Amino acid sequence: VYKYQLSVVSTSPTDIRLTWQPLSSQHSRGAITRYRIDYSALDQMDIMFSVELRGNETQFTLRELRPNQVYRLRIAAGTSVGFGVPSEWVQHQTIVLIFAPSELKVRSRVSTLNVTWQPSPNHTMVSGYKLSYREAEADGTSKQEGSSKTHTIRLRKKARHHLLTGLVPDRQYEVRVWGFNRQKDGEAAVWKGRTDKIYSRPSGPSSSPPLPPSSIQATANSSTSIWLRWEKPRFINVRIINYTVRCSPAGTTNASLVSYYTSSSLEILLGGLKPFTHYELAVRSNGEDSAGPFSGTVEESTLPDRPSTPPQELQLSALDSSSVLVSWRPPLEPNGIICSYSILFTVNLSEPEHQWRNLSEDGDIFSTEVNGLSGGTWYFFKVGASTKVGPGPFSSVMDVQTPLPTYELDVHAVTGIIVGVCLGLICILLCMCFSFRNSKSRSVLHMVII
């Protein structure tokens, strides 16, 4: 029974996408003309749905499914005679909807908005929050909605408030806050309101924004975290409530990749970062009603880790009956410098991985020739990458069949054989001639004597 290479993933709460590898000629037993996908909800297994596809399809998306529901799925290939044995059932759960944060509150000042919220009801599905703000149209007197620029800020999962600064007094703003994870963004909580007007104040000492912290130091803690420490400003001009940390990949111009963290102490452990990535970090002081400027940036890189994705674009090409050319591309997320590649291959796909034959190539090599194979045999290959931390996942298995050996005549060898045979025949003929002459001479002498 052939084991289908079936991959299942959800791209929205109501769909499931299936991808599969075409059957090789060894397993298809004829031309594949169609595929059939069977699926049902796990709590309603007696109700099964089926979809038939053309034989040249390798992916399909099931739509209008129920969110947060476990489905079971399988696939079967068919020829003109009928369908073969289907694959084993695979279970997959559709994505859960992320609800909007609750109790969104915004306290407005002349040039700031202090945004606070409570977690989403299903906050366990949230890996962080996003906050966006823009100038909004109000009573037809503001800018057109399409001309206002939206600013988006990424915040960590534990964030419950954020201070927006540098806003225009007496201006209508729209603020949105929503949770997100690796698969999708959740629903947003929305607030609309105005910043305060500027009123004349009695003469007196003016309140200036706090100065930035000093002696900022960053130290890599792991492949996904960095310790950031600082000291209070050398001169305290206002009461500091907390500090805001800005973190972004070095050199980025994409505002969506900039994250902000809040700390009430003089240090913070920044988590959820990407391995082997260079970051720029800055800190600012926040007063009761104003925020100071950010400090100068410091830079630090997270530590390397194992590759989180396998090598890409694995390709196999049979060169002759005893050798195969294997080529690949580096992983999409190497998480460090690739030190080596491991090429595993076998003739028996059911063998445990440690029994597969193993070849190794340096990290700057992207192809190799595997020799000493048997002709007319199916071989299964997969490739994995390693950093100094350790190996990453292997690629999907691909197969290739070596051709049967062909025997070609060696012209030089055949010519030598023919020449040798001819010389041998000439020698035999000469020997026969000499033998005949000697025999005739003895006969004449015998007659003379008589």
TrEMBL record:
Membrane topology: Single-pass type I membrane protein
Cellular-component GO terms for this entry: plasma membrane
Keywords: Cell membrane, Disulfide bond, Immunoglobulin domain, Membrane, Repeat, Signal, Transmembrane, Transmembrane helix
Protein's cellular compartments: Cell membrane
Chain positions covered by the region annotation Disordered: 195-217, 288-312
UniProt-listed SUPFAM superfamilies: Fibronectin type III (SSF49265)
Pfam families, sorted: fn3 (PF00041)
Main location class: membrane
Transmembrane segments: 413-436
Domain Fibronectin type-III per the UniProt entry, residue ranges: 2-97, 100-203, 212-305, 310-405
InterPro entries recorded: FN3_dom (IPR003961), FN3_sf (IPR036116), Ig-like_fold (IPR013783), Striated_Muscle_Regulatory (IPR050964)
Membership in a protein family: Belongs to the immunoglobulin superfamily. DCC family.
UniProt protein name: Fibronectin type-III domain-containing protein
Source species of the chain: Cyprinodon variegatus
